[in-house]
Each structure stands twice: as C-alpha cells, then as structure tokens.
Amino acid sequence: MALQVFNRLSRQKEEFKPLVEGQIKMYVCGPTVYDHAHLGHAKTYVSFDVIVRYLRYSGYQVRYVQNITDVGHLLDSGEDRILKKAGALSLEPMEVVEAYTRSYFEDMDSLKVARPDISPRASGHVPEQIAITQDLIEHGHAYATSAGDVYFDVTSFPDYGKLSGRKLEELQSEREIAGSEKRHPGDFALWRHAEAVHLMQWDSPWGRGFPGWHIECTAMSTKYLGETFDIHGGGLENQFPHNECEIAQSEAWTGKPFSNYWLLTGSLTIDGEKMSKSAGNFVTVKDALKKYKAEALRLFILSSHYTSPVDISDEALVAAQTGWERLMGAVRLARHALKTAPEGDAAAGFQSVLDEHRARFIAAMDDDFNAPIALSVLYDLTREVNTLLNSGETVGKATLEAIDGVYRKLGGDVLGIIPDEIGETGMDSARQDGLIELLVDIRKEARARKDFATSDQIRNRLAELGVTLEDRADGTIYKTQ
Q: What does the H/E/C string look like for 235-255?
C-alpha cells in the first residue's frame, strides 16, 4: 500500500505524492523560546520525529526545517512573550532566547528527537520578512498605517479560511489591539511599530519595529524549501490563526500553493484541559525525565495517533514504562542469547514470523503514520520472541541477529524507543545483584512449598528483563546481559 496521510487542507486521507520523486521538503513550526519545553511540546516534536524517521526509513531524502521563534509572538495583551520573560528575569531578550533555545534542544536530545536539518531563527530573517511585506503592499494585499504598523488585508485573499474553515464574516476581533487602524477585524500584523523602550526592533520602510508572528514562517520555510513544498506540520491549536495566516500571506505573495500537505498534531491535556504555560497546567520535559525514561515518554506519546488529543496522568506514564520494559525484556533476552549462540539453527523458520510482523508494521505506518498500531505489532512480536526463546529450542546466531535487527530497525530507527546499546539502569551493581539474589531466594522458598506458579512467574519475569536463571544441583545461578 502506498503511503496515505490525512491532509488537514483537504480534510481527507490522501495518497502521498512528493513534488520531486524520492525527495520530501518538510517544515514544522518550532517553539517560542521563552521557557522550558513541556510535555505538550514533546508530543508534537516526538510525533514529527517519528514521521521524519519513517519517511527516511522508506527511502525518501528529507530536508526537515523547524524554526525557532525568538521575536514577534505576542500574548493576547499585546506583550511580546520573550520581552515579558526578559523583564521578569532582568535579562536581555537574547539572553532569554539563548538560554531556552539550548534548553529546548537539550530536552529534545534527551527524548531521542533527531535534530532538524535546519533550525532558522526569526530574528535572523528580518530582511526577508520585510521584503515579503513590501511585496504584499505593492500588490494590494497589505497596507501600512499611520502608526507604522503593516496589516495583511484578508479580504484581498478569497481563499482565507480554507484550512480552518473559518469565514471572514464570522471572525471576531478578539486579537485586535486597542487603537489599531485595522480595516477588518481579521486583518493580521505583518509588521509592528516599536516604542522607544521596546528592546527588539529593526529599521524598516515603515519606521523602527519588529515582524509579526505569522510572517516569519513564510520567510523561513520558503527560503529553505521553495515557494511550494511538500509537508507543513505543527500543532492543531495553531491551525487558526497562525497556519491560516501563513497560507494567505504566502499564496498572495507567490501566487502558488504554499504546502501540499498539512499534518497537525492533537494536543496533550491534563484532566481534559490543554497543557500550556499560560494556563499553568504543564509538566516540563526535564521534570518528566526525572521520573520516567525517555523511551517510555516516547512510547506514551506514540500510544495515541499523532492527530488525536491525549490525556496525561501518572498512571498512563507508569503503564507506558511497563510496556517499554516488556519490549526491552525480549530485546535483552535476544541480545544476551547472541553472546553464546551456536551457528546451527533449529528455529530458522522464525524468519517468516519476522517478515510477517515487519509487513504489518509498515502497513500501519503507511496508514497515516499509525504508531499505536505499529506498537501493537511490536508487542505481538515480543510475545512470539519470548515464546521462542523460552521454549528450550536451539536458536542460532542467524535467527537471533534477525530478531535483534527487526527491533533495531522498527523499534529503534523508526520509533526511537529501542536503544542500540542497553545502558545503565541507574542502579549500582551491588544493589542490582542484591535484588536479583532476593528474588532467587524467594523463588527457592516457593519451590520448596511446591508453589510452582510463583516460581515460574519469577523466572519468566526475570527472563523478560534479561536475567537468565539456571537451576543446578548445587543451587541456582543467574546470568545478566
């Protein structure tokens, strides 16, 4: 089956056809860097990380651009988010930007999110934004005010609202700034004048000022991907006004389609409310990583479709960590067995099982990147692997390498939840050995009581974690990977 994606622009699932065969140009709206990233950001950027990983796994050459917003993103009060943070911390705005940009990339690195190919900053592309704004004025799509602001005229673009479904006559002036000279409540700022005390401002044909939020994405995406590109991604909450305004200004400027496919992620919620800094109901990535492994957080995010909202709770995160450990138990068992595996292989027929699960995994991901179904395929495979490796059947090196290879490719390269190297557990070896020995003693007591169900359960659960028990005449010994 060819790759199918749900295109928010057409509101239907479509076969994906890139502009240039074998190549994909993709832009995703990046963070506004005025605070630490939270799990809502993680949901969006882990989701697109997996999309990019799968496209590359499928053989596409992907150029992935994700911007950094460091100017122009205003609160509803009209305050610049970064300037407000700088004032609160008594810092220069660019000190705030540098600190939180580094923090963002540290968090994404910790979550195993691959860096974009290009991460342009809005403040580094002000000349391009000014040039586009000038062109829009010259062609009747924008107008300057006496105060030195420039607004896009939404009535000049008949397709305004085609992404979000909003109609001009229904637009309210909730984002209108008091005292502005807008001609229509839906008109949006391409350039804003700056008061003398405003710390971030540039020269322009309309006086000293700074760019609006929406124009930056048009300038940066088209600079690095061309006037029309394949995929535009972001969070569904920014479909209006941000993405809608991007389309209007871009297509009014170039006269060409802006992006062929719009892929937008559902939000992360807490008790049904969207996670956001402004609402105060957020968990930072840094805090989450103190309690849960990065791979478990990724697995939690991938357990729901990227387009769906998902509610977060400690119970859900604990379940995700347990699920990840179940997968890793089979991985550890296979990698441990590889160390002493014979060349001969009575289980060579297992390759057909691997092929079947690989095909099911690919079918799921080809269906609009359906990671939850792809995960379920890995869980099914894990049951098969555990059954094989605990059966007493001779499993040779070739089969074990094939098993490990499937986990590395599908769980590692694509989903980013299976590491190439199994790292430290965070527990020193003395405590780890002590806990294993305690379980061995409990199992010994259970066997003495003829409680074989408990004995087998301890043995099997330890095996899932890569700890193999061997009963001998002189007692039980264990081996760990």
A: EHHHHHHHHHHHHHHHHHHHC
With beta carbons less than 8 A apart as the criterion, state whether 167 and 261 touch. Answer: no
Q: Cβ(374)–Cβ(412) under 8 Å?
A: no
CA distance 386 to 371: 22
Identify the CA nearest to 464 among candidates 327, 323, 318: 327
* Residue 290 backbone dihedrals phi, psi, to 5 degrees: -75, -20
Q: What is the DSSP letter of 9?
A: T
Which position has the higher pLDDT, 196 or 226?
Answer: 226
In 3D, which of 313, 315, 312, 316 has the Cα closest to residue 268?
Answer: 312
Please give the Cα distance from 124 to 187 (Å, whole number): 25
And the tokens for 413?
């390269």
How are strands ordered across the β-sheet holding 61-66? Answer: 61-66, 23-28, 229-235, 259-265
Q: What are the residues facing 404 on neighbouring strands? A: none
Tally the residues of the chain.
481
How far is Cα 265 from Cα 283, in angstroms, rounded to an integer?
A: 18
Buried b (16+ CB within 10 A) or exposed e, 123-161: bebbebbbebbbebbeeebbbbbeebbbbbbbebbeebb
Contact by Cβ (8 Å): 248, 160: yes
Nearest-angstrom CA–CA distance, 156 and 251: 11
**Domains, the chain:** 4-121+214-295 (3.40.50.620), 314-414 (1.20.120.640), 429-480 (no CATH)
Please give the DSSP secondary-structure letter assigned to residue 113.
P
| Kind and range of the H or E run holding 328 | helix 314-338
- Distance CA(382)–CA(378), nearest Å, equals 6
For 88-111, the DSSP string reads HHT--HHHHHHHHHHHHHHHHHHT
The region, left, alpha or beta by phi > 0 then psi within -120 to 50, assigned to residue 193 is beta
pLDDT in tens, 289-340: 999 999 999 999 999 999 999 999 889 999 999 999 999 999 999 998 888 8
pLDDT surpasses 70 at 78? no
